[in-house]
Amino acid sequence: MRVEDNIKKIAADLLAYYDVHARKLPWRAPPGANAADPYRIWLSEVMLQQTTVAAVGPYFAKFTKRWPDVAALAAEEDAEVMAAWAGLGYYARARNLLACARAVADAHGGTFPDTEEGLRALPGVGAYTAAAVAAIAFGRRAVVVDANVERVVARLFAIATPLPAARPEIRSATDVITPDLRAGDFAQAMMDLGATICTARNPACGICPLRDDCAAVLTADPAAFPIKAAKKAKPHRLGHGWWIERPDGHVWLVRRPDKGMLGGMRALPSSEWNDAPDGTPPLVARWRRVAEPVAHVFTHFSLALTVHHAHVGQDVTPPGDGEWWPVAEIGRAGLPTLFARAAEAAMKEGKKDARL
DNA sequence: TATACGTGGAA
DNA sequence: TTTCCAAGTAT
């Protein structure tokens, strides 16, 4: 068989597999439906960045119900969107999501650009997302490379170069096997394959539709591809958080700066997070320390947050910008997971305190 | 090119 | 328990 035929066989095999086994996902137009809605495709792609399908599901449902189109999202207030995103992580995505929605609503007349280049210029839309939306929502031929595609392609061609150095090689190999027609389906098929068969661990090579096309399956350990550079050790940091409660059952919440960890999110006042954080509370009060620090693991460090709890007078205002939030409504504040856990620990401590 | 940036589930 | 990993982007 000629090389070009072999290349075409890969796309043909994969699309045949997809026609039968495509996962049914909320952001995929059902068979026979009208063309995909670019808003829903874009929203799902942003939510899915570094995030599992299972985690995205409820958030996608919530967002599309509350904000059915890009104009509705663009018109929403920042705090509402940030709170709705709380718990999903990587909060820069939520800030960029709003910026992008407003750019589309204002600068593009409410319509998403339909080219990779136009999409790429939007906030929070990188090489992957631009290619994915161009292909899936607009039927463009685009080379879509995410972690699934990287893994599948590295195995198909047994690419021995370690990541991240292998990226250019993987991209051009993906370009070669991407068909002119159905590039969107091809991309989604690659991702389905990577998520269900060509998985990172214990790939199911025995039932893989590309088994006959795969170089790695002929090696001793197909799962070893792609080769990856060793990871750095994760440092451990300490921090303090303060739960300041008023007699009328309100707690003091701050909004974190846009840049940095948990940027733009509501939070408890807290210290810097490092080897030896300053444990000086934001105000003078009778502080109780919650016995067990809240342990939390982020992407590049782990944190033990010591939570402190105090009741203050009704007329007290802690320093800095913030707001009094009803404790009974703390679930609606949109606290990121770390601070949701800290709040939980503080409230537990508060009940103990009340019994004394 | 390397680093910052969340979270929860699986092995 | 620990480690890895999931539809990446911005700087």
Mean pLDDT: 94
- Largest sheet report: 4 strands, mixed
In whole angstroms, the N-to-C terminal distance is: 82 Å
Radius of gyration, taken over Cα atoms and rounded to an integer in Å? 24 Å
Uncertain residue ranges: none
Question: How large a portion of the residues is in β-strands, by DSSP E?
Answer: 5-15%
Total discrete domains: 2
Helix and strand pattern? HHHHHHHHHHHEEEEEEEH
Percentage of residues in helical conformation: 40-55%
Task: Kindly identify the CATH topology of the largest domain.
Answer: Endonuclease III, domain 1
User: What is the CATH-assigned architecture of the largest domain?
Assistant: Orthogonal Bundle
Number of beta strands:
7
Number of helices: 12
Shape: elongated
Under CATH at level 1, the class of the largest domain stands as Mainly Alpha
Main structural class: alpha+beta
State the fourth-level CATH superfamily of the largest domain.
Hypothetical protein, domain 2
Pfam family, one: HhH-GPD
Organism: Sphingobium chungbukense
GO molecular function: 4 iron, 4 sulfur cluster binding; 8-oxo-7,8-dihydroguanine DNA N-glycosylase activity; adenine/guanine mispair binding; metal ion binding; oxidized purine DNA binding; purine-specific mismatch base pair DNA N-glycosylase activity
EC number: 3.2.2.31
Overall description:
This protein has 12 helices and 7 strands. Helix 8 crosses helix 11 (183-196) and helix 9 crosses helix 10. By secondary structure, the chain is of the alpha+beta class. The chain has 2 domains: 3-224, Hypothetical protein, domain 2 (Endonuclease III, domain 1, Orthogonal Bundle); 236-355, Alpha-Beta Complex (Nucleoside Triphosphate Pyrophosphohydrolase), CATH 3.90.79.10. The radius of gyration is 24 Å and the shape is elongated.
